[in-house]
Structures are given as C-alpha cells and as structure tokens.
Amino acid sequence: MLRITEIFYSLQGETSRMGLPTVFVRLTGCPLRCGYCDTGYAFSGGKSMSISEIMGEVASFSPRYVTVTGGEPLAQADSLVLLAALCDRGYSVSLETSGALDIARVDARVSRIVDIKTPGSGEVEKNHWNNLAYLTSHDEIKFVLCDRADYDWARQKLLELKLDVICPVLFSPAYGQLVPADLAAWILQDQLPVRLQLQLHKLLWGECVGR
C-alpha cells in the first residue's frame, strides 16, 4: 500500500522530458522542507491505494510516460515496488527525488531525477552524496537556484565533482526568486555544460501546480 496525494495526466514541466504528455503519480509525505517548495499540500493527507489500484488508474490514461513524484516518493518503501511494476508494464518511467534518500535500490530501468539541494533551499545538509555513485547517463541531476550565491555554489560542485560527466545537469531558477534571464546570462558567461530549465507548467498555467 502507498499513500497517494494525486494521480493526474498533464505535460511534463521539467527535465529533458519537458513537454511530453505524462501521467504523474504524486506520493504523500516528505522529510524535507525546502524554502521554495510548491507542493506542500503533499506533505500530509492523501489516500491509501494498493499497487494494483494505482496501476489501474495509471492505465486509464493509456500513457507512454509516467513520473513518480511527491513529496518524496522514496520516503515510502513500497515506492520501489511501484516503480518496478510500472517498468514491467512497459511505461517509460522517471522518478523525481530530493536527493536526500538512498537511490541504490531503485529499478535500473527508471530515469532518476535527483536534486542536489543548495544553501538557499535551507536543506543543503540533507544531500545524500553517495547517490552520485549510482547515477548513469540515463539519469539527471537538478539544482534549483535561489540567488547568485546558490549559482556560485552549484557551479563549484559541478566542476569539482565533474557532474556533467556522470549525467545531464539541470540548473533551474526558483520560481519567483531568481530571474531566469539572469541565470541564463551567468551560464553563458561561465560556459557551463548545463541545461537551463524553466518550469513549463508554470509558464502555461501560472501558480497552478500539478496541472
């Protein structure tokens, strides 16, 4: 059984899958409290669903792409069972995780989108750096940046750890905190091997999260 906040069909707003029609399975609960979090409604509540119930609701949309997100999906142990079941069904599956929990047991078929929390998030000490050892070119690393100090910190980590050699790296401005054009200028000035990511769903629908 898993605690589920919502299951819905929309366009993927982030990562290299941006723009693709996707079913989102949003799990309830998260051990982090990032300052820019836009899914606080998923911290509690939700409803208990079996894996078969979740699979049935996902199948009702006849999707090709499925994203398991939160909250923090890996905070619920049975999320690993769900991820494997989705892969077994033939979906192209991605996992959006905070980077604070161990990803070692996540099914290798899943594209793992792993955050690295910056000082501006308020949760930088929660980064589980051992996760880097499990990432492949199939995965992605994401930094959400609140200001210039966050950018400088992320740039240092990128170069020091050679993160772009491991997998694609995304730099995303925290919505309403960092001007996207400023971030674009810094990336160009420093010629960083990263992808600037804007949240497509917010460009389309504003503050309406998850749709």
From TrEMBL:
Key words, A-Z: 4Fe-4S, Iron, Iron-sulfur, Lyase, Magnesium, Metal-binding, Queuosine biosynthesis, S-adenosyl-L-methionine
UniProt-annotated binding residues for Mg(2+): T39
Residues the record lists as binding substrate: L11, Q12, G13, R26, T69
Binding locations of [4Fe-4S] cluster: C30, C34, C37
GO terms of molecular function: 4 iron, 4 sulfur cluster binding; carbon-nitrogen lyase activity; magnesium ion binding; S-adenosyl-L-methionine binding
Gene Ontology biological-process entries: tRNA queuosine(34) biosynthetic process
Location of the Radical SAM core domain: 17-207
Cofactor(s) it depends on: [4Fe-4S] cluster; S-adenosyl-L-methionine; Mg(2+)
EC number: 4.3.99.3
Pathway: Purine metabolism; 7-cyano-7-deazaguanine biosynthesis
Domain of life: Bacteria
Catalytic activity field: 6-carboxy-5,6,7,8-tetrahydropterin + H(+) = 7-carboxy-7-carbaguanine + NH4(+)
Matching NCBIfam families: rSAM_QueE_gams
Function according to Swiss-Prot or TrEMBL: Catalyzes the complex heterocyclic radical-mediated conversion of 6-carboxy-5,6,7,8-tetrahydropterin (CPH4) to 7-carboxy-7-deazaguanine (CDG), a step common to the biosynthetic pathways of all 7-deazapurine-containing compounds.
Quaternary structure note: Homodimer.
Family indicated by similarity: Belongs to the radical SAM superfamily. 7-carboxy-7-deazaguanine synthase family.
Protein name stated in the entry: 7-carboxy-7-deazaguanine synthase
Source organism of this protein record: Nitrosomonas europaea (strain ATCC 19718 / CIP 103999 / KCTC 2705 / NBRC 14298)
